[in-house]
What we know:
This protein has helices at residues 27-37, 47-61, 78-87, 110-115, 117-121, 168-180, 211-220, and strands spanning 2-7, 65-68, 98-100, 138-142, 145-149, 186-189, 225-228, 235-237, 247-249, 260-267, 270-279, 284-294. Helix 6 runs parallel beside helix 7. The radius of gyration is 18 Å and the shape is globular. Helix 6 links the parallel strand 5 (145-149) and strand 6 (186-189). The protein has a six-stranded mixed β-sheet with strand order 3-2-1-10-11-12. The chain is α/β, with parallel strands linked by helices. Bound molecules: fe (ii) ion (2 copies). One fe (ii) ion binds at residues 71, 103-105, 191, 230.
Amino acid sequence: MIRLAHFSDIHLTAPRLDWKLRDWFNKRYAAWVNYRWLGRRRRFTKADEVAVRLADELAQRRPDRVVFSGDATALGFESELKRTAELLRVGDPSFPPGLAVPGNHDYCTREAAASGLFERYFGPWQTGERLNGATYPFAQRIGHVTLIGVNSCTGNRWAWDAGGAVGLDQRERLRQLLAKLEPGPRILVTHYPICLSSGRLEFAARGLRDLTETLQIAVEGGVSLWLHGHRHNAYEFQETPLAPFPVICSGSATQNERWSYGEYTIEGLQCRVQRRVFDERAGSFRDGVVFELQLRG
Length: 297
Ligand SMILES: [Fe+2]
Ligand SMILES: [Fe+2]
């Protein structure tokens, strides 16, 4: 039996942001306007406090692995990444080990994506088996289960483009990595969803551009469960019309009123999910709904 704690989309920022001249002419300026003036900041007024409580909670409940599916930051600045990684105690040997993949906000611009800053600050949560020295994908074995971290984010040019892609090269490595894993459930962790809570596909400008190709590799490679974030409401499927395995969207751990994360107890192919929800009055997390999923064998 193993226990995972899955959280996502905490979107922390920092008191001082490292603006560069080019940021006024790329996607970051529009992202900042959205954050500062179009309501995003108002939805994350308690994000710092909730993230601190989340870290306390994880340190206390000690899951076998902490799983973070991206969007650590609001705008992908180095100061935000540094602060978030410190707050989440990434690399602290007394904290449970982790697995992390970036979100589209962490790759806010092409420069941010190419900088390797997310990978530097979350490096201790990206150890594992990988192919040809490439950063993604990577696999971590925990008990009878293998977690596979896949990067689904790209640095985009245009303000309206919030889409991502796994990309041809990474997809090929994913295919090879899945083929050589030991038997047991395979849990794929990525930022982007397969579908919305309604079961419909994301709009093209917000979704995974190579979803069909990535799904085909996941299905053929025996993926048992797909974990993701990006959407800030939590939802799950035992299976979707597109994929014969269960899918869990963790939602945002810190957005006002949506703040929650999932604790997954996996025994054989049975996965019991305990949602833990932030209680604003108590200033701590409490039990939410419980449900069970059958992993694909
Ligand atoms: Fe997000
Ligand atoms: Fe996102």
